[in-house]
Amino acid sequence: MRTGILAGAAAGAAGTAALNAVTYLDMAVRGRASSSTPEQTVEAIEEHLPVSVPGEGETREHRVAGLASLTGIVTGVGIGVAFGVLRRAGVRPPAPLGAALIGATAMASTNLSMAALDVTDPRTWSAGDWLTDALPHLLYGAVTDAVLRSLYR
After folding, report:
1. CA gyration radius for the chain?
2. What is the mean pLDDT of residues 6-18?
3. Tell me: the pLDDT tens digits for 74-102?
4. Cα 138 to Cα 152: distance, rounded to the nearest angstrom
């Protein structure tokens, strides 16, 4: 089990790095701003829990931004761990299917949580919005799956 957790964490971290890299490349190429939904999600979670992000003004904004980035890392590594444990247990779909499953799981976990918190409504997204969200998650899935495969050879 520990091997699955460690392999999954490494694979998820690699996938997260790839997702972040392609997202930042897209921002640089298209000149688009970063999404504010991660910060909005942190603030929505804050409204539902008996905790608050300390500080005021820019200090608080910077903390929220840091927490938003950390939630992405935790999600990416966590999903990698889940698939690492599954792989250790013998679940080994073919590469394209494994990549798609991992990417779809990551995309669903973030989009469903944001929808549940009323941060966004994916039903209202344009085709371009879906593509902007799907491609980095598919790359996350491909890299995470590839690292898991290489670690289990």
Report:
1. 16
2. 98
3. 999 999 999 999 999 999 999 999 999 99
4. 21
